[in-house]
Amino acid sequence: MSSLHVNKALNNNVIIAQHPEHGEVVVIGKGIGFNRKPSDDIPLTAVEKMFILKNQQEQEQYKQLLPQVDEALIEIINEVITYIAERTDVPLNEHIHIALTDHISFALKRKEQGIVIQNPFLYETREIYPDEYRMGEYAIRLIKEKMGVDLGLDEIGFVALHIYSAMTNQNISQVREHSQLITDLVNLVADQLDYSFETQSLDYSRLLTHLRFALERVRRGDKVEELHKLDSLLKLEYPEMYSLAWKLTKVMEKRLKLPVYPAEVGYLTIHLQRLNQRKEEENN
């Protein structure tokens, strides 16, 4: 059996079908449900630009969501996810179909009611996840073109986090916690150095990137090579920056509930010292 056996067409773009390997599945694709009747067979070769939800829980959630969503949006989300899948070399977590559909559907309803939700992580998201942000821009642009509704910059950031979540298999709440932690660490640096970062500046971008990679290393448990003599020298030469770096790693440990290798303090000290030097140059 090299075809999908249609059990039921839920709408023009979604069917419930019998898959030769995965049993009952939900299949999402442009026009896949149009004029389909139960017992129709669709060759698997025709499922090239379509997505199959195999997970039982995801299937049930998606079926419950469908009646509440404009069918035009289903088609747009399908285009967006195809666009993302073609631009990434990692498989997407299939939960993105539910998460993105639910999120954007709710955002459209809020827009209709004039409710605006600001995105506190917008700058951070754009700097830390540039590829996902560009994909988010594509999604919001497509919605504007096809539905005539501009959801704005804040939503690009929210969509980017959902895309990152699907690409890394992280729960969206984990991704948000990660973004919040980076924001809090940046604020701590700004307070300690008494320095107001220009969000568009290279210094700000460098700090975010450094913190992002540090958090990713901690999350993955990557061993960071010790700096040995350099570490002692940094502690002696730049005691304030070393102390601040140590404080930042302790915040990371507490929030991530994971150990941070001592070498991270040294690398962070070098970075903070460069920032501090820039601040002093600006003040002179």
UniProtKB/TrEMBL annotation:
Q: What is the lineage of its organism?
A: Bacteria, Bacillati, Bacillota, Bacilli, Bacillales
Give the GO biological process terms: positive regulation of DNA-templated transcription
This protein is called BglG family transcriptional antiterminator
Residue span(s) of domain PRD: 68-173, 174-282
Write down a Pfam family by its short name: CAT_RBD
- Keywords linked to the UniProt accession: Repeat
Among SUPFAM superfamilies, the record links this protein to: PTS-regulatory domain, PRD, SacY-like RNA-binding domain
Q: Which GO terms describe its molecular function?
A: RNA binding
The record's listing under InterPro entries reads: BglG_antiterminators, CAT_RNA-bd_dom, CAT_RNA-bd_dom_sf, PRD, PRD_sf, Transcrpt_antitermin_CS
Q: Which family does it belong to?
A: Belongs to the transcriptional antiterminator BglG family. GlcT subfamily.
